[in-house]
Automatic annotation (TrEMBL), chains A, B:
Species this chain originates from: Colwellia marinimaniae
InterPro entries for this protein: CadR-PbrR, DNA-bd_dom_put_sf, MerR-type_HTH_dom, MerR_fam
Highest rank taxon of the organism: Bacteria
Name of protein: Cd(II)/Pb(II)-responsive transcriptional regulator
Keywords carried by this UniProt record: DNA-binding, Transcription, Transcription regulation
Lineage: Bacteria, Pseudomonadati, Pseudomonadota, Gammaproteobacteria, Alteromonadales
Length: 140, 140
DNA sequence: ATAAACCTTCCAGTAACAGTAAGGTCAACG
DNA sequence: CGTTGACCTTACTGTTACTGGAAGGTTTAT
């Protein structure tokens, strides 16, 4: 069992250790992704260890481009010990699908752009093959 | 010399032939990407051949994910016959760069997601490897 | 005392539209 | 002649995930 060390820090400290901007932390609180922070006497937000963990979790999910709304549901599942992690599996799988589809699309796009980029040997706009190509329907 | 056939159509017709939503066409006019359309007696917008070409050009650029602001500059270059097409070249090249960078990023992301997706053989949240992984810093 | 470096809330802006409301117009049908 | 349906108009809001800035309070150091 880990000792529950009682760290306490202000928002910019939390921002530094989690690598999430203060502004973003407040935003997450606004939209209910983070619980309302404890406030000390002067009204400043105070944070502890749990907040670090929660924020790191969120940041990791964001790095995987998981939308905030889905992170919300992940957190709900996470804190409920009797829920199955099928939902988590599904969400990650779905995210993977999305990323793969995007890669496929962008790869086609890369082809098109490359073809286009190498299509114009001229330097006057009147003769520009790029512009001419862009004026026509896709030859797909 | 091409005959300047005098077609005339309303916005939904233009939308159909160019495959750009009426709403989007109005939006393009609002932001100055399209010139203010001619209005007939009842105040409806009327369009001709030039508008088709211009819109197809814009759509093609959008398919290449070129931002509207850059399309604006492309159009300026396009209509000025004495400008060089270096700017066009550069823009396409730049777009290609961006796409390639995004592909690279997404490919890494795909790896991470794939590893994550196959990391959890359990079905209770308490043991879920996916969640555990997400709670930690990236092991990069 | 004052300046720097924090903190607070609130409002606006980003990109590229899509949705909706409220209302005007036009052609056809009965 | 009335009305229905399919258009058209403007204007406003919502989307996603923040970021920037204004205006003001607090704390710390000099």
């Amino acid at each position: 069992m880990k000792a529950q060390s009682k760290v306490s820090m202000k928002i910019s400290q939390l921002a530094k250790v989690t690598n999430v901007a203060s502004k973003t932390i407040r935003y997450y609180e606004d939209i209910g992704l983070l619980p309302a922070a404890y406030r000390n006497d002067n009204g400043y937000r105070e944070y502890g260890n749990n907040d670090i963990e929660r924020l790191v979790f969120i940041r990791r999910c964001r790095e995987l481009q998981i939308p905030l709304e889905q992170i919300k549901t992940l957190i709900v599942v996470q804190v409920d010990p009797k829920s199955s992690c099928q939902e988590v599996d599904a969400l990650i799988e779905q995210q993977l699908d999305k990323v793969r589809k995007t890669i496929a699309e962008l790869t086609l796009l890369e082809q098109t752009l490359h073809t286009l980029a190498t299509s114009c040997p001229n330097d006057k706009v009147g003769d520009c093959q790029i512009l001419k190509n862009l004026q026509q329907e896709k030859p797909s």
